[in-house]
Write a structure and sequence with these properties.
Blueprint (H helix, E strand, L loop, with lengths): L4 E3 L9 H16 L6 E3 L31 H13 L2 E10 L2 E9 L5 E6 L18 E2 L6 E2 L10 H4 L11
Parallel strand pairs: 1-2, 2-3
Antiparallel strand pairs: 3-4, 4-5, 6-7
Length: 172
């Protein structure tokens, strides 16, 4: 049994959640037509256009661009879309959390449920506006187990080797 994966590849507008969401829905609808896609994957911080990379945006500003999955209209719409199209979605966004704002990937299953959240663990100079994730999760799906890496996470072998094991936060 093979799986079909589609990656969203267009440049979202920095800080424009509404227009990025509208364009995302258009692109996802085009992709899904007659393709029987199993998984759609978005780039990191897709919804806000990776606004954190802008020098004029402060760590404190990030709260304006981050979503709360439990109350976000975007999350609700993505959930309905995933269910209606029988498709897994890996949704890149800035997410509000207990310890700050995270560079997150929300994992939606074919029923539109969030089955997990991965927060980028390995932050570089340009993304220190985010709180670091502390778990390299493994997610169960109808096609098997999988993990997620966001950008710099791929540079550290423990991301792949120790997926599912807690990682230590180290102050530098």
């Amino acid at each position: 049994m093979g799986i079909k994966i589609a990656q969203i590849k267009f440049i979202p507008e920095k800080g424009h959640l509404d227009s990025n969401y509208i364009e995302l829905m258009r692109v996802m609808s085009d992709i899904i037509k007659d393709n029987n896609i199993d998984i759609i994957v978005m780039p990191e911080c897709f919804l806000d256009g990776y606004i954190a990379s802008e020098p004029y945006i402060t760590k404190e500003d990030m709260v304006k661009y981050a979503i709360e999955p439990d109350t976000s209209q975007y999350v609700n719409y993505i959930s309905v879309w995933a269910k209606n199209n029988n498709c897994w979605i890996i949704f890149g966004c800035s997410r509000k959390g207990i310890d700050g704002i995270y560079n997150s990937a929300l994992v939606f299953n074919r029923m539109g449920q969030i089955t997990g959240i991965f927060d980028k663990c390995h932050l570089q100079d340009h993304d220190l506006k985010f709180a670091p994730g502390n778990n390299l999760g493994v997610f169960d799906s109808d096609f098997g187990k999988f993990g997620i890496m966001i950008c710099a996470d791929r540079r550290w072998p423990e991301t792949v080797v120790n997926a599912g094991v807690k990682v230590r936060r180290v102050a530098v």
